[in-house]
Amino acid sequence: FFKARYINKNSLNNKKETYQNRYSSNKLDINFLNKFDETQKEDLYLGIVEVVNFSEIESSLSEEELDIINSKISEKIINYLEKDEQVYKNDKDEYIIVIFAKDEKQAKHKFMYIANTLNQISYESYSPEVVIGVSNCNISNSFNTYEAQKIARNALDLTSKQEKVVIK
Predict the structure, then answer these.
(1) Which end of the chain, C or N, has fewer beta carbons within 10 A?
(2) How far, CA to CA in Å, does 12 sit from each of 6, 15, 52, 69, 93?
(3) Is the distance from CB of 101 to CB of 69 less than 8 angstroms?
(4) Does the pLDDT value for residue 36 go beyond 60?
(5) Sequence-ordered alpha helix ranges (H) in 15-134
(6) Which residues lie closer than 8 Å to 32 by C-beta, 6 or more apart?
(7) Cβ count near 63 (within 10 Å)
(8) Which residues contact 78 (CB under 8 A, 6 or more apart)?
(9) pLDDT computed for residue 42 by the predictor
(10) CA atoms 137, 148, 157, 125: torsion sign
């Protein structure tokens, strides 16, 4: 709970950062990629989870109630991820998720499950509306966090209520 509040308070400072600094690799531990060798066929997928109605929720709830929704979102994501997969909060209405999947179909299934799970959260009659933009980053190539987030953000712009997850 207090970690969620800390993140929420610091997110106001994140908005003042430059566009380049918003896509930072310092929060993402990419050392875990060294565990996977070239013979493995898994791909790395980076998704940006955006709560599209966050400003509406934020204006209607107190800071403590907002923290509760943030902690519920974080808990649902963390409980779903496998051992080497990661999540971090990039902005007050965005989470960055890194998963492994054998192919794009499996990745889409995993991210759709996350989106559907988060869309079922409710608090005081408010529910987050979540969409996810995803970048496919083959682990055999060098991993560039900035580029992956840029591609995921472009995919995020293509999402809609009908298509909650877009992979580019």
Answers:
(1) N
(2) 11, 6, 17, 17, 11
(3) no
(4) no
(5) 19-22, 54-60, 63-80, 104-119
(6) 84, 86
(7) 11
(8) 87
(9) 62
(10) positive
Nearest to 91 by CA among 166, 7, 30, 163: 7
Vertex 161 angle, CA 160 and 163, to 5°: 60
Task: Please report, for the chain, how many H helices and E strands are present, in that order.
Answer: 6, 5
Q: Is the pLDDT of residue 33 over 90?
A: no
How far is 50 from 65, CA to CA, in rounded Å?
Answer: 19
Single-letter amino acid code for the residue at 153: R
Please state, in angstroms and rounded to a whole number, the distance separating the CA atoms of residues 95 and 50: 7
| Pick from 75, 134, 143: nearest CA to 106 | 134
Half-sphere exposure of 44 (CA within 13 A, CB side): 26
More confident residue, 56 or 42: 56
Helix (H) or strand (E) holding 131: strand 130-137
Contacts by residues 55-61 (CB-CB < 8 Å, ≥ 24 positions apart): 55/93, 56/126, 57/126, 57/128, 58/92, 60/126, 61/123, 61/124, 61/126
Confidence (pLDDT) at 106: 95
Three-state DSSP class for residue 98: strand
